[in-house]
Amino acid sequence: DQQVKQNSPSLSVQEGRISILNCDYTNSMFDYFLWYKKYPAEGPTFLISISSIKDKNEDGRFTVFLNKSAKHLSLHIVPSQPGDSAVYFCAASEGFNKFYFGSGTKLNVKP
Amino acid sequence: EADIYQTPRYLVIGTGKKITLECSQTMGHDKMYWYQQDPGMELHLIHYSYGVNSTEKGDLSSESTVSRIRTEHFPLTLESARPSHTSQYLCASSEPKTGGWYNSPLHFGNGTRLTVT
Q1: Which residue, among B20, B21, B24, B22, has the nearest Cα to B4 in the 3D structure?
Q2: Which of A28, A75, B95, B115 has the most beta carbons within 10 angstroms of its beta carbon?
Q3: Coil vs helix vs strand at A84
C-alpha cells in the first residue's frame, strides 16, 4: 500500500505564476519530508526538506508547507519559470529509516 | 554536495545475459541505496546498505543482488536479465547523521536506463 501519494500526475502553469504541488501521506510516524525535482534521463535532485516540528520551510522561490493533522505536504514555487518544468517527487521517512516516494507530478511551466 | 556516479547511462541487452550496474560515490557516505523507477510511478527501494558488508533487500521484490565491499562502491547485478527488468535504476547515498533527530537527504546518481530485449 502506497504510504506517500501524489494524486495529480500533471500540472500546467503560466510563467510568473505560482505552482502548487501536493502530496498526502498515511503514516503519522513520518517526521521528515523532502521534495525532489527530476528531469528526463537524470536522477532526482534534492530541492527542499522539512521536519515534523515545523510547518513551513522556505528556500528562495521554493516553500514547503506541512499540515500534520491533515497529513498533507505542499510545495509552492513562486514565481514559476520555464526551467522549473520537470517531474516533482515528494518523499517521507520515519527516524533514520528508508524513504517512501510518491509517484510524481509533472509540472509544465508555459512561457 | 554528493558526487555519485552510475555507469552505464544506457544499456540494451538480450534476455539471459548477466549484467552489473555500477555505482560509486566519493563522499564517504555510509548509506547507499538502489531504487527502481518506471515512468509515472514512484521510486521503489530494491536494495540498501548501511555500510561495508551490510546489504538488505528493499520493499520491492527484485531478482538482483548487491555487494558492498568498499564504502564507495555499491554495484547491482542481474544474473539473467529478462524483459521484465526493463526500467530505470537509480543509485543514491546519504551522509551519516551526527546528532540531530532527522534523516539526511538522498543524493542520486543520474541513473541507468536498462532495456532487455
Answers
A1: B24
A2: A75
A3: helix
Which chain A residues are Cβ-neighbours of B108 within 8 angstroms? Answer: 36, 43-45
The shortest CB-CB distance from A101 to any of B6, B42, B102 is to B42
For residue B49, give the C-alpha cell. Answer: 546498505
Using CA coordinates, name the residue in chain A closest to B47: A98
For residue A12, the SS3 value is strand
Joined together, the cell numbers standing for residue A103 give 509517484
Cβ proximity of B114 and B85 under 8 Å: yes
Burial class (CB in 10 A: 0-12, 13-18, 19+), A74: middle
Tens-place pLDDT, residues A20-56? 999 999 999 999 999 999 998 789 999 999 999 999 9
Measured between beta carbons, which residues in chain B are less than 8 angstroms from residue A104? 40-42
B104 burial (CB, 10 Å; 0-12 / 13-18 / 19+) is buried
Which tens digits make up the pLDDT trace of B1-25?
558 999 999 999 999 999 999 999 9
